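step=encode ok
step=design start
structure_in=
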């Protein structure tokens, strides 16, 4: 087991570490931190060291108010995406933080400000799509993101079941689409332990191989 690094007394952005907590966040050592705004919060040591968490969450609200007054893009169609991205990765009080910042997903330094994010995405934004990471364990960067439909995002989740057949790896949903069979039919066959040849190509009327 690795040695725990005690950050008591150190400063990370707007946060000053008061003490090490007995509480663990997502199986990681947590620290009680005092924000410059006066609020206290528990933050994972790893998030502090990476710079992923630099305030109790008030910084995000403050930046939103500043941008509303300066660049005039606060009501842009891209602003809710940017705000949600930062909340998930930087605010431990966000209900989805454990799936993003809590497991190491970060936002690149350039995208910590809205104007660069807007310039990088306005031409590639697709109405009806949301910002998706290509490498689900990687950061939010220009190179690692794309605008995807909800279906495509679902297929990129960490718990997606992948199948390799004749050297080609795809999700169950993609195999079903490419083979022209129902997704639920393919799942039932695989879960029943059928050989892949039968899962893919056996006529639907033949429910189980003898």
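sequence_out=
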């Amino acid at each position: 087991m690795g040695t725990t690094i005690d950050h008591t007394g150190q400063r990370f952005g707007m946060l000053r570490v008061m003490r090490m907590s007995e509480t663990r966040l997502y199986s990681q050592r947590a620290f009680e931190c005092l924000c410059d705004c006066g609020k206290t919060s528990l933050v994972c040591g790893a998030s502090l060291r990476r710079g992923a968490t630099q305030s109790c969450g008030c910084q995000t609200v403050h930046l939103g108010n500043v941008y509303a007054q300066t660049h005039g893009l606060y009501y842009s169609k891209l602003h809710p995406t940017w705000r949600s991205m930062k909340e998930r990765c930087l605010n431990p009080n966000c209900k989805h933080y454990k799936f993003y910042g809590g497991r190491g997903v970060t936002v690149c330094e350039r995208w910590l400000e809205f104007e660069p994010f807007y310039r990088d995405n306005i031409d590639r934004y697709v109405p009806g799509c949301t910002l998706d990471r290509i490498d689900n364990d990687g950061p939010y960067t220009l190179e690692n993101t794309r605008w995807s439909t909800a279906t495509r995002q679902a297929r990129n989740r960490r718990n997606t079941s992948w199948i390799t057949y004749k050297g080609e790896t795809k999700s169950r949903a993609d195999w079903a689409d490419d083979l022209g069979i129902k997704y639920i039919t393919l799942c039932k066959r695989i879960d029943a332990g059928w050989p892949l040849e039968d899962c893919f190509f056996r006529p639907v009327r033949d429910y189980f191989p003898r």
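step=design ok
step=annotate ok -> The first strand starts at residue 11 and ends at 12.
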